[in-house]
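Sequence, please.
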């Protein structure tokens, strides 16, 4: 049954966030970088999205078993970029799934790094799949590129059956005060100045999202391009790899608006957009004539 509002004790089990889509992460109060792997089940087939780090593997695998899926039913592992918090457990998955035809799906820009984790799986670039993965039933996962948000090969994954969009680091957040679903109070939705909280909250969840994007994304331009790609997709639920799932349309619009006008993202916080390197000065250095 799909959980609308799980309590914190229910985070001990896999939680179905949409038809056949399970959150298989765990509540990690020690870490500000909370990870959310997901399992998509279609009849007797399954795929894992952004499976998680090596130390998290035992917990993630236990959650998969709780759904009734056996390891050999996992046909593919999808990695939306190549960071260790997604990919670290690839050898563990390969060991337990033990399928010769297990596929690792990612953009070719990511696969050249992912191959350093993988021992035995077939590495399949998204271009070879025409940017979609199809289950035997015909259910499709579509892959949409979001380059440099934050890796060259970053992409998001859309399940048209449930309108869930898996966004990896996009819409992620830092923060130890974590809930599976993002809830904003009505007065929060009116807030225009996140640095002055009328409710005196110790941590503003929206500010946590903005801070994460300033630090993790490469540039304002890359983030805006990614948001533009997302805006074309008819999603209803955002399922990020960090932070909380957002399923309320007004909250999605509210966060989207803040992100689309966010400044000082990545390198743009350090240098101006029209910055030019003064090669003349470099030429004058001793030893460079
Ligand atoms: Fe990342
Ligand atoms: Fe991440």
């Amino acid at each position: 049954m799909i959980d609308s509002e799980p309590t914190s004790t229910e985070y001990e089990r896999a939680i179905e966030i949409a038809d056949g889509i399970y959150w298989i992460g765990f509540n990690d109060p020690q870490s500000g970088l909370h990870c959310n792997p997901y399992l998509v089940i279609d009849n007797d087939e399954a795929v894992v999205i952004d499976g998680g780090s090596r130390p998290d593997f035992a917990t993630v695998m236990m959650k998969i078993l709780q759904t009734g899926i056996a390891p050999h039913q996992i046909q593919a592992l999808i990695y939306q970029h190549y960071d260790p918090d997604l990919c670290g457990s690839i050898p563990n998955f390969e060991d337990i799934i033990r399928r010769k035809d297990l596929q690792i799906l990612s953009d070719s820009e990511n696969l050249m790094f992912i191959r350093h984790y993988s021992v035995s799986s077939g590495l399949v670039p998204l271009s070879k799949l025409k940017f979609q993965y199809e289950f035997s039933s015909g259910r499709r996962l579509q892959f949409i590129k979001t380059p440099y948000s934050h890796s060259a090969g970053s992409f998001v994954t859309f399940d048209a059956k449930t309108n869930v969009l898996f966004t990896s680091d996009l819409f992620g957040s830092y923060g130890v005060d974590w809930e599976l679903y993002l809830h904003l109070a009505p007065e929060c939705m009116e807030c225009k100045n996140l640095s002055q909280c009328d409710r005196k909250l110790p941590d503003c969840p929206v500010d946590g999202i903005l801070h994460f994007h300033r630090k993790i994304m490469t540039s304002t331009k890359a983030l805006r391009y990614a948001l533009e790609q997302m805006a074309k997709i008819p999603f209803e639920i955002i399922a990020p790899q960090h932070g909380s799932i957002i399923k309320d349309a007004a909250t999605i619009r509210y966060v989207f608006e803040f992100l689309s006008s966010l400044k000082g993202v990545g390198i743009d916080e350090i240098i101006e957009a029209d910055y030019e390197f003064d090669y003349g000065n470099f030429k004058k250095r001793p030893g460079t004539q």
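The chain has one domain: 8-128+142-269.
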